[in-house]
Request: fold
Amino acid sequence: MSPSPFTVRRALPRDALAILEAHRAAIRGSAAEKVYSPEIIDNWAPIHIAPERVEAFAGVIEQGDEVVVVAEDRAGKVVAFGSIVLSNSELRAIYVSSEHGRRGIGRAMLELLEELALEAGVTELRMDASINAQAFYEANGFVSIERAEHVTQSGLRMACIRMRKSL
Reply:
């Protein structure tokens, strides 16, 4: 049996830029552009990743309130990430760069995040999923609750699906 084409691990602060690049690649290379306006896409996944954003995300990872995991390809390049906020039982999201999609990476990251949540005593995860990711989460045991709007940090409103999963 050949070795796995990817590995999943906890993120380190030094991964921040690579994570944000994978985030951008996932959003801009997925069906998101068919679902969301260019304004939402530009806000959600800016072409230019500001150094302040990298520094802030590295701080989030270091602080540890948001548990972040990454998937790396055989060359050690971050190709995906996901995160949970244990204090409010929230799955933030799973993002896989489009060229690495449909290889089990998202499912492997979700399984690790669910294990970490259970170890911390979390018995249910809730989330606001993007419209284009709804099928992935449903295929992995999440239940759609309602259509809603997620307000971005800059105040834009984007359609989403409120979901939950009992662990």
Q: What stands out?
A: The chain has six helices and seven strands. Helices lie at 16-28, 32-35, 38-44, 51-63, 105-119, 134-139. The chain has a mean pLDDT of 90.
